[in-house]
Structure to design on (144 residues):
């Protein structure tokens, strides 16, 4: 697999909520504050999936969001990474047996990095970004 050279410069991230309680969103915003400042590493949120390299997904996949999640995932250009933020996205969390769920995120789209927690702290989200960068470096080593 040959990676897009844009991965060498920065990671642009698109956030998608599939049914979260907004606890994870609050922690993502806290991660973007100057205290952690991920933009110093070139990591920034973008408003369009067509400009993104990484997709942050929060929440369990509720039935009404399944098709939208698949459509947004398809709009992100290859190669792409998916980070699942929070317990609800990983396993369904407290909603795991709800009638309205189509399952955790990895039953709908492939997930590369999991960040557990309810909600995960900003340090855990930054650790997840580091894991994503390590995966990209491994992929680059295989592709060259």
């Amino acid at each position: 697999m040959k990676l897009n050279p844009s991965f060498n410069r920065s990671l642009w991230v698109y956030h998608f909520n599939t049914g979260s309680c907004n606890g994870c969103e609050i922690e993502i915003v806290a991660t973007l504050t100057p205290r952690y400042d991920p933009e110093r590493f070139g990591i920034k949120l973008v408003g369009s999936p067509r400009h993104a390299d990484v997709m942050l997904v929060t929440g369990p996949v509720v039935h009404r969001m399944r098709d939208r999640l698949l459509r947004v995932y398809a709009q992100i250009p290859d190669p792409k990474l998916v980070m699942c933020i929070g317990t609800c996205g990983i396993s369904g969390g407290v909603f795991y047996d709800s009638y309205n769920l189509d399952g955790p995120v990895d039953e709908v789209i492939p997930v590369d990095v999991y960040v557990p927690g309810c909600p995960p702290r900003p340090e855990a989200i930054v650790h997840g970004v580091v894991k994503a960068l390590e995966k990209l470096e491994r992929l680059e080593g295989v592709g060259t």
